């Protein structure tokens, strides 16, 4: 009897070891094809929330000749609510652009008209090359006040920026009609069609990451299509975020992201852009 109990105990221990090995092997093999292990997490937990993969899946393409996101996808982005402690941006379409590489024909920028509320709610799309990398010393003071704009500091903290959709740093020689003018080597400045009220954090800490990718590609003599779209919810005057996407004609640069328009330590009223202190508001910059 004692011998049978020992055998059953040994069998149970052996089975447990096999199960542990199987789980470990599953994690290892899944991670091989999915470095973040996000799909495996979904398989195990059944959690299909986009917070797991930090990705908005399967975006549909605009019917414009140069592509971009569809209006239904912009609506999905506008409906996203930032949760304190979350990442400052999320990937769209698995970080793949919906722009059409073959649409790059002429060095120019398509600046969309303001909407009925004077907002820059429509996409600006730039067809860029190396000569568009701007000299930063030619910057001047910005005076345009986009919708949702307020006094720039609170208790010594910079809260608001006049956010460029198409960055100053990649728009050298482009005039406000969107055409290249070799006599003007400044980047875009004080253009109402290219500015929106953006948090200082989103503009200076997050958007610059992706603008640097575009500049790098241009300096490597690549041609790039770069599109930026401020995303508003309903009739709100301050954008909830901004969609940035870019693709080089050789395909080596390719990204598609949505940046939340948020500021650590503050909450915005997006209806009018006013900010109030909220020490619980935290942002993950990774």
TrEMBL record:
Keywords: Membrane, Transmembrane, Transmembrane helix. InterPro entries: DNA/RNA_non-sp_Endonuclease_sf (IPR044929), Endo_G_ENPP1-like_dom (IPR001604), Endonuclea_NS_2 (IPR044927). The chain crosses the membrane at residues 12-28. One of its GO terms (molecular function) is metal ion binding. It comes from the Bacteria. The keyword Mitochondrion does not apply. Residues 103-277 form the DNA/RNA non-specific endonuclease/pyrophosphatase/phosphodiesterase domain. This is DNA nuclease. It comes from Lactobacillus amylovorus subsp. animalium DSM 16698.
């Amino acid at each position: 009897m004692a011998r049978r109990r020992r055998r059953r105990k040994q069998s149970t221990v052996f089975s447990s070891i096999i199960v542990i090995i199987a789980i470990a092997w599953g994690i290892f093999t899944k991670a091989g094809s999915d470095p973040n292990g996000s799909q495996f997490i979904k398989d195990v937990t059944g959690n299909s929330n986009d917070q797991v993969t930090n990705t908005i899946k399967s975006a549909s393409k605009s019917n414009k000749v140069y592509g971009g996101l569809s209006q239904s996808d912009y609506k999905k982005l506008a409906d996203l609510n930032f949760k304190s402690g979350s990442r400052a941006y999320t990937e769209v379409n698995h970080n793949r652009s919906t722009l059409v590489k073959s649409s790059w024909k002429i060095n120019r920028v398509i600046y969309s008209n303001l909407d009925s509320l004077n907002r820059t709610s429509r996409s600006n799309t730039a067809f860029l090359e190396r000569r568009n990398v701007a000299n930063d010393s030619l910057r001047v003071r910005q005076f345009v006040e986009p919708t949702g704009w307020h006094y720039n500091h609170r208790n010594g903290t910079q809260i608001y920026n006049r956010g460029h959709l198409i960055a100053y740093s990649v728009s050298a020689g482009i005039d406000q009609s969107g055409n290249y003018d070799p006599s003007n080597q400044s980047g875009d400045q004080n253009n109402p069609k290219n500015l929106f009220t953006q948090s200082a954090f989103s503009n200076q800490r997050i958007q610059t990451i992706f603008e640097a990718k575009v500049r790098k590609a241009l300096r490597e003599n690549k041609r790039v299509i770069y599109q930026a779209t401020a995303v508003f919810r309903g009739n709100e005057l301050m954008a909830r975020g901004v969609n940035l996407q870019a693709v080089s004609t050789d395909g080596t640069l390719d990204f598609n992201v949505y940046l939340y328009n948020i500021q650590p330590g503050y909450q915005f009223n997006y209806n009018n852009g006013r900010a109030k202190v909220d020490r619980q508001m935290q942002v993950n910059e990774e």
